[in-house]
Specification:
With about 475 residues, the protein is mainly alpha-helical. It has 18 helices and four strands. It has a four-stranded mixed sheet with strand order 1-2-4-3, sandwiched between helices. The chain is globular.
Length: about 475
Amino acid sequence: MPIYFLLLLALARLRPAWPAPSGGLTTGDCTFLQVTIVLAFALAVLVVTHWFRALLLHDPSERFVLAHRFQSWKRFFLHALLIAFLLTTYLLGWGWTVRQLYPPAEEGARPVLLGFELFFLAPFLIGVLLFWTLLYDFDRLVHKLGEYDGQPTFPSRAGYVFFQAQNHFLLMLPPLIMILFEQLLFHLVPESTVAAESETLSWTLIGMTAGSLAMFVIGLPLFIRWFLRLTPMPAGPLRERLAEAARKLGLRYNNILIWHTRQTVANAMVTGILPWLRYVIITDRLVSEMSEEETLAVFGHEVGHIQHRHIAFYLFFLLASIYVFHNVWNLLTSYPLFARLAPWADDFTEIGILAGALYIFVVFGFISRRCEREADLFGARVASPWAFMNALEKVAILNGIPRENPGWLFSWQHSTIAKRVDFIGRTIDEPALAVRFQRRFGAFKWALALTLLGLGVALTLPL
């Protein structure tokens, strides 16, 4: 779901105008329709949630089957909410209504208010918050029926919603903060200076934006640590073993942190480009459910991301791709032929966003899945192939991820658990397979980086 937030944020950011509703609808009418649709969505979620809860109370032995079916309904409702929001935005005048209440600034002038993007996304975000609020009763019952000694109590409804927001808004908040910060910088520039459109001002704004972006990237690990309420892993045999492995691997990092999910998530990640602000993050459930050897294998996987410089490569790919794609798209749309091919479009903002999203989805997904495989190989070497395969299987079971077919959104950045386990297993009997994979993927990364760099330079130089 985070990818949906990012796409809607891009749409709100880049779309200059929205079509007016047909039938003479006013801003009040459009707002009423938007509120009605969100409430109807919430009512449907409430009915389905209580229906599943009644089925579970009637036959608790079907807990796993019902929980799996309920996951499918969750995905259906989220897609329905997204489609409804887009339809109301384009066909029922929500985008037009927001622009009437929140008009864009004239060219060369500062915006009237800050945070248009958040205002525009409010119905979708409110719908998602209601969605999590209403899911609580079923998820709490599933947890209660599966209680065992030592299992933490299920959070309150507010705590449950807050945890879901932490999980899903993590990727959305950083770019939203950057947008608000950029708008604030623009507000601080005097209007008379903006109107002058001086070259000095242009370079000043570019420098301020670049500096804020650099500070943001550097400070992102601190934000994640605060936002997820991470705490250092307690001293003990496991931490000592992980620290010893890091020393042998030459890993420089700030700390190993625990993400307290109330035993609801088994996962790990790494964040931070700079060593003194780099954190290895492991959830409480992964630590409690896995053996030391399996935890070491997962830790090795995260170290693999650092040693292969995946974070830096992701950042370069995304920034370079956005720059190149934006400039190439501007060149294409400047030709009259392009307008003749799409006469039904007043402008090409949506086409550009969809084309860019498709490019990022396909290419970044391809890169991410292979980076994960590269990190898998590293984790298997740090512990053992068998420990790493066991860890993968446990991650699937603990997080309720289908082993063979988790759905295309779930396998976008990671291959299926079955494919990942199979690849590691084949490298045991055929070590050359891992060598060939890393050689080919390394060549692909260099070719892609040089291509993006060359295109970026070519598009920057004057014709």
